[in-house]
Amino acid sequence: MTSLPPAAGSPEFAGSVAPANSSLSAAAWVPELRASMGEVIVGQADLVEGLLLALLTGGHVLLEGVPGIAKSLAVSCLAEALDGEFSRLQFTPDLLPSDLIGSEIYNSKESVFEARKGPVFANFVLADEINRAPAKVQSALLEAMQEGQVSIGGQSLELPQPFLVLATQNPIEQEGTYPLPEAQLDRFAMKLIVDYPNPDEELEILDRMGRTSALTKVRQVVSLNSVLQARAEVDQVTLDPRLKRYIVSLVEASRRPGASGLPELEGAILIGASPRATITLSLVSRALAWLNGRDYVTPADIKAVAHRVLRHRVVPNYEAEAEGIDADALVSRLLEGVPVP
Fold it and tell me: pLDDT tens, 104-123?
């Protein structure tokens, strides 16, 4: 990486996208990956970009949306395009931790107990309807997400790399669910809201999928080693000290809005973002700059990822919810109120 970020106040620093930098050699596979997934997934550009950002940063993702809008399909397509090991687990109220991480079995021939690995030992783990799992299962998943390992019978077993948990939840059905605690929500790097396709996209879905021989497989276009190489390049993307302070200011404003010049939010936020949000904003904005062919971050990159990173970490209080103010509205107000360098 050789180029320097533009000076503060210049139009380019304010958010325009610079031409692709030839030093970002590992980015060559990105268009191919998008095209491969696009052979099956219609539209959902924000979802695909969010999955790419998670892939580049090693962050886990919470996908929220009604059934039938390709949340699970997008995750499986990503795994196939990368030739990664994929496992899907349907979370239900009767699920046990051993159903997720595995258990010990007795080897009568050797007279020893051996660890039998569960479905969490994969590069991409789809936790379908995660909020239907009881607390013990969520705790087992929490260790895997945070530590990159699980414990079976006193043994700590490393998970494969890259390792991503991509969890879905239905925002409509609440019967028989166990809301995720804030501690576990904070382990998700991003929360992506997946919406219905527009009419043109839905017509294309019908043309593609409205037959018994519909294409549901994607081409493998990139290796896992290429992803790890790309992560090394993302780490080299320049984040100007002024933008580091801007990120800290955004997160601080979510905790103490009054002291940050946003007194109207003082009584609207129940819980602000944690330091993990500060780290994640830095990583994900770097990854977005890399996807856009730049080796430096602009304020527009930070603003573009802020809702995905903060919407599950900034919790409105009851009064705000009663007035129809949700987390996205609070994040938007933070972005409007915190000065950009």
Answer: 777 777 777 777 788 888 88
Q: What is the CATH number of the domain that holds 270?
A: 1.10.8.80
Q: Name residue 315's amino acid.
A: V
Q: Is 44 left (phi over 0), alpha (psi -120 to 50) or beta?
A: left
Give CA 333 to chain center in angstroms: 22
pLDDT band at 225 (very low <50, low <70, confident <90, very high): confident
Amino acid (1-letter code) at residue 115: A
Compute the average pLDDT of residues 186-211: 84
CA–CA separation, 284 and 71 (whole Å): 20
Question: 325 burial class (0-12, 13-18, 19+ CB within 10 angstroms)?
Answer: middle
User: Where is the domain boundary, 157, 190, 218?
Assistant: 218
Residue 255 counted as domain residue: yes
Quick one: CA torsion of 113, 115, 118, 122, rounded to 10 degrees? -170
Separation CA 283–CA 234 (nearest Å):
8
Measuring CA to CA, which residue among 99, 152, 102, 144 is closest to residue 123? 144
pTM above 0.85, yes or no: no
Q: Are 137 and 97 in contact (CB under 8 A)?
A: yes
